[in-house]
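Folded chain entry
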Amino acid sequence: MEYSVGKYHFSYHSRGEKTWGEEKVLLDESIDLTAGTPWHATGFTIEKLFDDALYAQFAKNVYSLLISRWQQAGLPVDYNFTLSRYHTVAEDFATHLKAVDKTKLLNISEFPVAVHLLEERISEICKTSLITKNPFDQQRVFHFRVIRPSKTDNNPLHRDIWLEDYDNCINLYIPIAGSNELTSLMMIPGSHTWPESKIERTVKGADINGIKYNVPAVTAIKGNFTMLRPSPNLNEVLVFSPYLIHGGSINSSKDDTRISIEIRLWKRSY
């Protein structure tokens, strides 16, 4: 799979069985939380997250949570550590995996501010009432995504919907540190409305250069497409459809780890 963002060119080759999809649009069979929004055509938007006072509280609590979790993983960090320098204390993959294990699948009770404030803000953006509760397994969790420079920490291009428990939701990318035009999430605008027949993908999770991923990987796309790297600032949120092709976000910076919060919301049922 080859793709470009601006002057940067990327490629990967995934081993294993591949398949072209059926002539159907998965979003047509699902709840589309982009419907009725000004950004439905692209499948994503960047919006302000919180008011300034609330964001200051959020940022302070994020920092404390990350430092605490990294300390639990055995990283030599203290409360003066610069988050984007993470790669200097987690250079090898084994150390990185120990740290990642402490910063994924965090219960929503640990979210840096009362989660109902996030739910209310994203409900406003999507024009429908949402909740951070997966109806598939009843989980209420969030993750930190930590992508070191020039490493293979990122997922390949994929749709989240190819994992059975991520349909009917909306995705959030909240930048925490080191997120910029060289590091932030890549996506193909409008691809949430593509038929599966336009995409070749691995049948199971991707296997790229001996590294196994949970998500299937896009391995070919029929026709031309445009890859973007939206770059939300601090106190902004990238809201996007899980049916959108995204990922492949290699950190192209020389000396900044990209850290973001990943969380999903579903339509509230009363």
